Structure formats: structure tokens, C-alpha cells
Amino acid sequence: MNNVNKTLYIPLYGKALVSSRGIILSDKTAEDIWAKEGFLLKGKSKSVWLAYYMAMRSAVYDAWLTSKVKNHPDGVVLHIGCGMDSRIKRVSEKCSHWYDIDFPEVIKERKKYYVEDSYYQMIEADMRRGDWENKVKETGTALIIMEGVSMYFSPEEIDTLLQGIAKHFSSVMLLMDCYTEKAARISKYKNPINDVGVTTVYGYDEPEKLVENAGLKFLAEHTMTPKYLIDALQGAEKMIFRNVFAGKFAKNMYRMYEFSTI
Q1: β-pair type (217-222, 254-260)
Q2: What are phi and psi of 234, to 5 degrees?
Q3: Residue 180 near residue 151 (C-beta atoms within 8 A)
Q4: What is the pLDDT of residues 114-138, one digit of tens each?
């Protein structure tokens, strides 16, 4: 795997850790995969605080997608940059079809642990190049997750992706997290992804501008660390996380945006 693909192990570790402790997120699949595939993380990438943050972020995505699928059972889910994530197992609501999409080398690893069927498929694609479109036959309503991937897309690449999505589907609902421009600047020197060799990332401060060429509308900014998930922590950990990792500083570095064509 290249360095960008190796970043998938950081959230996998986080989800496996919290699941093993019985807090924030239940993810036995992450535990099993990490036990077999995980490698020695170093530096901030193995931080318990980052593990909590990644798990909370995933739980927020799960809740959002569960709600959207319930209200749009005829829709199709696109999980872009799925890595080894087991969201397909964590979201119990069913839509018309579910696609997990990532680079070929990631999907190759993923197929060791996930089985395709008439409802669920894994697509090998570089979303920056539009080579996914002929692999997704549905063109109606799309419910799209972009968790932890936007920072690896240049402005030109993400614009191409979003325009392609809006053109392919009649309606789109999208949730994605983004670094701020400030976070992208300092990430070269201080970011857990540096520990797997990634130093070039991108940030986006203006959600309306981010999607204007694709014709999507910015609907809302979501917190990745809601109080009910922070309350899963105990004692000093809860206090430290709330004040340091869920406060104003964190929001200045990392945000979650919801978009829609509806």
C-alpha cells in the first residue's frame, strides 16, 4: 500500500480500541481485522485521544446515514474511501444498494474480510479520476459518506469528484469532514498521518464555495464530538477530551459539513 492508503489503519485502530473497551462504538469486525492486519503504529497515530476522536466521528456518520437510509430506502449508499471500515455491518437500515469504494490495493485487502452479495458491492476506483461512474448503475438518490478522505483531494480533484457525483445522480445527500486551511498548513509538521508517511493534505474553510460548481447546497455543520459520546468517557479522560479535543481549538482545525441537492 502507498502512504495515503496506510492511513486507513489509524481509524481502524481507534475503532478496535474503543470497541474492545465497550465504549463509543461497537465494532467487533474492527477488532478482528486489527488483530490480524494491524501493524505497529508510532507517535500520535496510536494516541488514545485520537482513537476516541476517530470513533466518535464514525459514530456520528453512522447515525446520520442510518437516518438518511430510513427516510430514503430507495437510495443508494456510496461510502467513498471505505478503507477497512465495517459501516455496512453497523448500519442496520437497508437502502436499495450499498457500494464501498476505495483504491484497488485497499479493496484487495478488504475482500479478505467482507463478502459481496446482491445488496453489497466493493468497487476498485480512484475517485479523483471518475472511473467509478460506469460501475454504479443507479442514478436516483445517492447517500454519500466521505469520512477522512477530503484532505487527500486537491481543490481541483474534489471539484471534479463533486461535479461527477451531481451529474450522475438525480439527487445527492453528502456528509464529509474537512481539515481547515490552517490545519492543512500545519499538518506537514504535526499530524498523526505523518507517522505513516503522509505530508501533503488540503483544507477547506468555505463549504458553500466547495460545492458551488457541483450545484450542491451547504446545509449544516455537524459536531464530530457530541456530548452523548463524550459522556461515554469517565473521570479525567472525559474532562480532558471535552476541554482539549472537543473545544474551540478542535473546531478551528477540523469540521464536518452536510450538503444536498434537495
Answers
A1: antiparallel
A2: -125, 150
A3: no
A4: 999 999 999 999 887 877 888 999 9
